[in-house]
Design a protein that fits this description.
The protein is an alpha+beta fold and about 525 residues long. It is about 40% helix and about 25% strand. It is built from 18 helices and 23 strands. The strands form seven sheets. It has a seven-stranded mixed beta sheet with strand order 3-9-10-16-13-12-11. It has a five-stranded mixed beta sheet with strand order 20-19-21-22-23, with helices on both faces. Strands 5-4-6 form a three-stranded antiparallel beta sheet. Strand 4 and strand 5 form a beta hairpin. Helix 2 (about 40-55) packs across helix 13. Keywords: Aminoacyl-tRNA synthetase, ATP-binding, Cytoplasm, Ligase, Nucleotide-binding, Protein biosynthesis. InterPro entries: aa-tRNA-synt_IIb, aa-tRNA-synth_II, aa-tRNA-synth_II/BPL/LPL, Anticodon-bd, Anticodon-bd_dom_sf, Gly-tRNA_synthase/POLG2, Gly_tRNA_ligase_bac, GlyRS-like_core.
Length: about 525
């Protein structure tokens, strides 16, 4: 199945089963804004808990914060957002559609990478187990030619971004025959910059109102609270501050479902270190964050690092963790070494000292910062994309049918277990309810008695429930139930008294955390 078709099915699945809805849908929706449904909010909350606990519980020197969305407007002047928070945009004159020039070039590179992967896939089939992928990539003429093209584009692209050369960004698009996906033409306008911040007013009257901004990132709330947290928490360098919160960007080219939205949620941690030690901690957090992703068991080969072509003027290192979405490898998390730019800027604009006295060095200094920043919505999409599966199974009458299943990590699944009475009589529903009432204080469960047991299994597979418990007549005799495993469809008989222990072992986040320490 083509990846475009997989993505369309995934988007439809999110709507059909209550994961994600278009915002204000009854009014024809609001572009690039989405609501999380009854199952989506459970999965999203589990993702946030997994991130927050991994940061705060597993690291004694990391603490939490919840800063306000509204901040003093000088905050965004100091951070550089007022003057330089821009995207390079280009329009196609025929379709009247607007695109980010850098994304068009990144998509071009990705298409060439796709050609290389096709050559590799064909060679694997041809040579079988004896295939040496590294040797093939280093010797095959078509692969080498495409890699040389990628390297050339990369070099030119990075220089244009770093030099803010909008003319050459356009020229790259023209030179490599990039066409508008809608019109199919190369009739492009010049590239120009567009500020992404939403502005609003605070005050009781128009004359007395102040222009403020919906925050475009959560990091600045951490920086302005650096001393508050450090002093009240008696924190010693190095230490980190973690935060989960909403951010807002006026994305003109919002696309790919919840991948790029105007209202989104971030999970960020700013780690404050001694100047000169930032690269050591940059490598530490790169490794820790990649382990966090891979521990979910979505497939190690689906993740990769991508070093930034363009560094922000204040940064000395930046790497993305990318995940292979149905539309290619895309960023889900960034790790950045931000030097002392943020605290120095706020110190200058506020007139307040934002320094740390280091008793070991016996001196004051402005700490350097290493940042990890992950989009909750992108993480949600990557998990849903990795979990969406279709396979062929036999029904009770031996007929083939397609089973749609979400292979969600058990610790993140919205519903941990479904309890199903085999029949709606003979005391089976009552016994099933007893089990639900025993376990519901610790786990999100579902009770379902409608339709055949096979249809109920399929419903639970489709929402990613890892375990189904069937209560039958034998249950009334020996207090055992049948537990069915989503991924294998295997069934086994277990005692009701053991259910809590089985659930704890299978769905606890502790098992994930143990892989990180």
């Amino acid at each position: 199945m083509a990846q475009e078709d997989v993505f369309k099915k995934l988007v439809a699945h999110c709507k059909e089963y209550g994961f994600v809805f278009q915002s204000s849908e009854i009014y024809d929706g609001l572009g690039a804004v989405y609501d999380y449904g009854q199952l989506g909010v459970e999965l999203k909350n589990n993702i946030k808990k997994y991130w927050y606990d991994a940061m705060v519980k597993l690291n004694e020197n990391v603490v939490g914060l919840d800063s306000a969305i509204f901040m003093h407007p000088t905050t965004w002047k100091a951070s550089g957002h007022v003057d330089a928070f821009n995207d390079p945009l280009i329009d196609n004159k025929d379709s009247k559609k607007r695109y980010r020039a850098d994304v068009l070039i990144e998509d071009l590179i990705q298409k060439i990478e796709g050609k290389i992967e096709k050559e590799v896939t064909k060679a694997k089939k041809r040579f079988g187990e004896s295939f040496d992928e590294a040797q093939f990539k280093s010797t095959n003429p078509r692969v080498l030619a495409n890699q040389e093209k990628i390297n050339t584009i990369h070099t030119r692209f990075a220089k244009a971004l770093n030099d803010n050369d909008l003319e050459d960004l356009k020229q790259i698009i023209i030179d490599y025959d990039v066409v508008c996906p809608i019109s199919g033409t190369k009739n492009w306008t010049d590239v120009r910059q567009f500020n992404l911040m939403f502005a609003t007013e605070m005050g009781s009257t128009a004359d007395g109102a102040n222009t403020i901004y919906l925050r475009p990132e959560t990091a600045q709330g951490i920086f302005v609270n650096f001393l508050n947290v450090q002093k009240t928490g008696r924190m010693k360098i190095p230490f980190g501050i973690a935060q989960i919160g909403k951010a807002f960007r006026n994305e003109i080219v919002a696309r790919q479902f919840i991948f790029r939205m105007r209202e989104f949620e971030q999970m960020e941690m700013q780690f404050f270190v001694r100047p000169g030690e930032e690269m050591k901690w940059f490598e530490y957090w790169k490794d820790f964050r990649m382990k966090w992703h891979k521990s979910l068991g979505m497939g190690d080969e689906k993740y990769r690092y991508h070093d930034h072509e363009k560094l922000a003027h204040y940064a000395n290192a930046a790497t993305d963790i990318e995940y292979r979405m149905p539309f290619g490898f895309k960023e889900v998390e960034g790790i950045h070494s931000r030097t002392d730019f943020d605290l120095s800027q706020h110190q200058e604009h506020s007139g307040k000292k934002l320094q740390y006295f280091d008793p070991e060095l016996n001196k004051n200094y402005v700490p350097y910062v290493v940042e990890t920043s992950i989009g909750v919505d992108r993480m949600f999409l990557s998990i849903m994309a990795g979990a969406y599966t279709e396979d062929e199974v036999e029904d009770a009458k031996g007929r083939k049918e397609t089973r749609v299943m979400l292979k969600l990590p058990a610790a993140l699944a919205p519903v941990k277990m479904a309890v199903l009475p085999l029949l709606k009589k003979d005391g089976l529903p009552e016994k099933a309810r007893e089990i639900v009432n025993t376990l519901k204080f610790d786990y999100n469960l579902q009770y379902d008695e409608k339709d055949s047991i096979g249809k109920r299994y399929r419903r639970q597979d489709a929402i990613g429930t890892p375990f189904c418990i069937t209560v039958d007549h034998q249950t009334l005799e020996d207090h055992t139930v049948t537990i069915r495993y989503r991924d294998t469809m295997e069934q086994e008989r277990v005692a009701i008294a053991d259910l809590e222990k089985i659930l704890e072992e299978k769905v606890s986040m502790k098992n994930l955390f143990k892989q990180l320490v």
